Amino acid sequence: MTKYTKDHEWIIVDGDVATVGITDFAQKSLGDVVFVELPENGASFSEGDDAAVVESVKAASEIYAPIDGEITAVNEDLEADPSLVNSDPMGSGWFFKMSIADAGQLDGLMDEAAYNDYLKDLD
Amino acid sequence: MLREGRPTTPEAIANDAGGIETFSGNRGLRIHEPLIFENGSYNRTGVDMEDAGAFETSLGGMDREESDINLPGYSEPETMRHFTRLSRKNYAIDMGFYPLGSCTMKHNPRLNEKMARVPGLSDVHPLQPLSTVQGSLKVMDELSHWLKTLTGMPAVALSPKAGAHGELCGVMAIRAAHEAKGDPRKYILVPESAHGTNPATAALCGYKVKAIPANDEGRVDLEALKAELDETVAGIMLTNPNTCGLFERDIIEIAEAVHAIGAYFYCDGANFNAIVGRVRPGDLGIDCMHINLHKTFSTPHGGGGPGSGPVVFSDRLADYVPVPDLVMLDDNSLSLKEHVEDGDANFGRMTAFHGQMGMYLRALSYMMSHGSDGLRQVAEDAVLSANYLQASLEDVMTRAFDGPCMHECLFSDKFLKDTGVETLDFAKAMIDEGYHPMTMYFPLVVHGAMLIEPTETESKHELDNFINSMRGLASAAKAGELDRFKGAPYYAPLRRLDETAAARNPVLKWQAAEAAE
Amino acid sequence: MRFLPLSENNRRDMLEKIGVSSIDDLYVDVPKAARRDGLVDLPTHASEMQVERHFNKLASQNTQAGSVPFFVGGGAYRHHVPALVDHLIQRGEFLTSYTPYQPEITQGTLQYLYEFQTQVANITGMDVANASLYDGSTGCGEAVLMARRVTRRKKAILSGNLHGQYQDTVKTLTRFTEDEIQILPANPAKPEADIEALKAAIDDQTSCVVVQNPNFFGHLVDLTDLAEVCHAKKALLVVVVTEVMSLGAVKSPGAMGADIVVGEGQSIGNGLNFGGPYLGLFATNQKYVRQMPGRLCGETVDANGERGYVLTLSTREQHIRREKATSNICTNSGLCSLAFTIHMSLLGQVGLKKLAMLNHKKTVQLKSALEAAGLKVLNTAFFNEITVDLGKSAADVVDRLAAKDILAGVPASRLNPKDSTLKNLLVMAATECASDEDIEAVVSALKGEV
Fold first, then answer.
1. Does residue C35 lie within any of the structural domains?
2. For an engineered disulfide with B372, which of B51, B70, B160, C42 has Cβ 3.0 to 4.6 Å away?
3. Structural domain of residue B441, as residue ranges?
4. What is the full DSSP assignment across A92-112?
């Protein structure tokens, strides 16, 4: 199951683990990504907390925790090669994985069709 | 017959070098200059001095080996040539038109440099007894008088080192004033068109920022502002004339509304050049405002500093001026209050010593040279020139807002829509035309913003040449001459630089090849 | 008006093009109540000669440092600056250029900033340095803020032997932030005791320890142990160097284990200028570079593959991060850093060491002369500054000597009047500018006072 936030993050839910990254639209808006600051393994966040930072040359953006939970893994490949966020935002450019404290929060997020409609309204 | 005659008319051969590579890698006046570390010698110095010889040292066993310092040296001629060659890779006001919006790149009179170097004023230590520096204190006193009179404000803090430091000084005074009343409050309101230092400053003072939207006329949306005003708001930070180059028409009403809830009005004075001698911020209800001496009063920008950002205060905040503060003693001599005493309202000290004295001297020399009449003419000519550019370009570029502008005019990138040319490309093509680009992508409230500030020190001839180039570029963009833009600049010392690579793998100092491995 | 090129005819033509009849029509957005018709109450314009006359008159009311025996230091030092430095920084291409936001036409500024960063990193013994801050004192405040970002702890401990105005600046800068600042008492006679007190004060809430070396009273202390204690408790060691010339003779802060080095760079290339503009040096280790304040210049290539330089990592800065920036700072001390870079290129390691040793020798000579005259000097390990206990109010003595045209030093009480234990202490600096006659004059005058 893939969900989206209004801040252009995606969440892929696999069992009780959610993987989080930014969408193609987001990486295009930022431009060439040069740095990603990831959370610490084991850190816990509430929905909406600053969890990570993604930077391009001219822009920087906070990545918010889309749901409550604890960080279970971070994508250390981004440290050496932040361009993965540009080249494969929905795949190898993922940011972190987190536990799902309250599955009900997922219902408040958009599915792919709703997100695509949301993007259309932005123009 | 003299035999030194030689051809003095160029032969009509190919116009360009046809790809000829020089053996040196240089191209005439474009000379490659290596780093000091690549060319200098680790055994050489370019300074002659007395040799200390052998003596019993008292360094506590912490002596440093020469090689540990790890710096090569140059002889004087090599140093001269190194930095002269570097200088020729720079664009500068002395060379040409520099219409960088919100930066006020005006001519820097050389008298000011001379005055800053008068030995009796420059070769003076900040901690000499005050009886031995009365001349310097008088400079500070005179500068204070000029700034207070021009702004119509009763108090001034000279010490802030630059504009952003002045902002910090002003917002700290606001916070100190609220704390004295028992509640620091929570928010600072900042228009979304503001310079980035404004929210950064508010955050340093422990405030949260609420952004106020702009209206269709490029000004603060008064109704939106009023909706945010309540007793949790400590103050507002507003630039006037604003970052769109417009005077905030409702400024007095804004001040009244801000004061009505017991908050304070901070004005970012970056754009004071448009109104100096014609409008006094004190008459607008402003409580404190920094003045960039390096903008309005022409102290040189120096490649990014040093600046100087004195702050003027209204009566409502005058008690909160930080130290050092000038004091007139009974015998008419000047003194400095250098410490916060118990019971003082002021919030402390912004910096060691007394601020940017070298800049005070330059600014005072500039002010005296212009006088009250010249400064008023400065504002008028700056505004006239900006409106002249706006009127001369509005049919080919897209004005962001209607009505007269102040000292700078703002265009959006709408005229480039569907041309494939972006604001950045347009700016880089201006480099090939021999100009420094305007400020771009700021303010954020206008898409692809281009902010042009001519200042009062450009001749009409220079303005007309610039207009001609800009009109030419606008036509070329519409005609689809993409190469002219996408590859620009072609005629600068370097082509476009790879900023992505610089940020992904930061190389911030030179290292010998083996050490860098 | 010599600075304004527009003629009355030009102005008329331009108004016509704009389509208004007078300049007042361009100020219509100013509320009527705030429009001023006449001139403000200030003198009208003046010729170059008039301005020069006025400034020369003001200058005559100062005692010029170079005209008298001069031993004033305390964070600003009088050194000889080679003539070439001032010539080069006045080249218009440097003087009248802006921040290098267009790298294609500002490689001159960018390359010297890169050279400057390398010089600062090397002399401080650190991995990286930024393109300068306002001055040493504000840099010191920025270091405290940075230590909080790095450690996520709030308590900074300041040595009491740190320059008093640096202490005040840190307190002010952090007054409204979450930081807690603990300042230990000054310890002018026993510098090692100050270090021991710092060690004892570190706990698991400490973000950093800020210590000056040579300290305000001129003492040199090896900070290696202190660095180890800091690191064992996961706090950062911030070393402040107000006399950057000392780095030519004294082991670098980096070699002692510093995490952040803050310096006042005025001594190299820059004059006294009554306290400003000066030059803030800021260096740290590679791993903290993204938490650093201020501008950074980095190497890259252009579209043709030629080497060049750009401002980089600017997402840390206010124009992008706004309220989340590492600092609100916008400018650096560009031209002062150029003066530093030029002077340092002339010196090289050979010249810097030689000049530093000459400073040290003059101060050793001053100390011997003071002791021979029966005066009490508190220092055993020092660079070019020492503290004398006069046994009576140092401020009074300094004033009396000033009346005799001798500038003997800084009374410690000037920076910290509330600490009565400092009342009799005079801090004296002897640089390469001090002649044998100057030393003789000040020692004999001091002897006459006590």
1. no
2. C42
3. 372-492
4. TT--EEEE-S-GGGGGGSB-H
Q: How far apart are the first and last CA of chain A?
A: 27
Checking if the pLDDT of C233 tops 60, the result is: yes
- How far, in Å, CA of C299 to CA of B37, rounded? 14
- Using CA atoms of A79, A83, A88, A93 in order, give the dihedral in degrees to the nearest 10: 20
Q: Are residues C338 and C368 in the same domain?
A: no
The per-residue pLDDT of chain C, averaged, comes to 96
- What is the token pair recorded at C354? 């030689």
* pLDDT tens digits, one per residue of A64-107: 999 999 999 999 999 889 999 999 999 999 999 999 988 889 88
Helices (H) and strands (E) in chain C, counts: 14, 13
Q: Which domain holds residue A76?
A: 2-102
CA atoms within 13 A on the CB side of B137: 23
Query: How far is the C-alpha of B512 from the C-alpha of C188, rounded, in Å?
Result: 42
Per the domain annotation, does C10 fall within a domain?
Answer: no
Structural contact between residues B136 and B250, judged by C-beta atoms closer than 8 angstroms: no
CATH code for position C400: 3.90.1150.10
Residue C123's pLDDT is what?
A: 98
Give the CATH number for residue B195: 3.40.640.10
Which domain CATH number covers C133? 3.40.640.10
Comparing CB atoms, the residue among C312, C320, C324 nearest residue A59 is C320
CA C129 to chain centre: 15
B344, B366, B388 - which closes a domain? B366
Share of chain C above pLDDT 90, in %: 94
- CA–CA dist B133, C401 (Å, integer): 15
Say how many C-beta atoms besides its own lie within 10 A of residue B436's C-beta: 24
Q: Which residue has the tokens 């090129």?
A: C5
Same domain, residue pair B344 and B410? no
Nearest Cα residue in chain A from B499? A57
C66 vs B58: CA distance, rounded Å? 27
Distance CA C239, CA C257 (A): 9
Provide, as residue numbers in chain B, all residues whose Cβ is less than 8 Å from the Cβ of C7. 460
Closest chain C residue to the Cα of B86, Cα to Cα: C108
Question: Poorest-confidence range of A71-75, A78-82, B31-35, C364-368?
Answer: A78-82
At residue A29, the pLDDT reads: 86
Query: ipTM score here?
Result: 0.97
Mean pLDDT in residue range C290-309: 94
Of C66, C99, C367, the CB nearest to B304: C99
Cβ C280 vs Cβ C258: under 8 Å: no
Contact assignment for A57 to C290 by CB distance below 8 Å = no
CA end-to-end distance (rounded Å), chain B: 65
Distance of CA B245 to the CA centre of its chain: 16
CB pairs A-C closer than 8 Å: 19
pLDDT in tens, B390-405: 999 999 999 999 999 9
Q: Note whether B161 contacts C276, CB cutoff 8 Å.
A: yes
Q: What is the pLDDT of residues C263-279, one digit of tens each?
A: 999 999 999 999 999 99
pLDDT at position B107 is 97
Task: Render pLDDT for C332-352 as a digit per residue (tens, 0 to 9).
Answer: 899 999 999 999 999 999 999
B178 touches chain C (CB under 8 A): no
- pLDDT of amino acid A123: 63
**Partners of chain C (3+ Cβ pairs below 8 A):** A, B
**CB-count burial class (<10 Å; 0-12, 13-18, 19+) for A103:** exposed
The tokens describing C421, both together, are 């234990």
Q: Which residue has the tokens 């001159």?
A: C108
Distance from CA of C362 to the nearest CA of B (A): 9
Q: How many CB pairs under 8 A join B and C?
A: 709
Test B348 with C172 for CB contact under 8 angstroms: yes
Query: Which residue among C58, C63, C302 places its CB closest to the CB of B497?
Result: C302
Chain center to CA of A75: 11
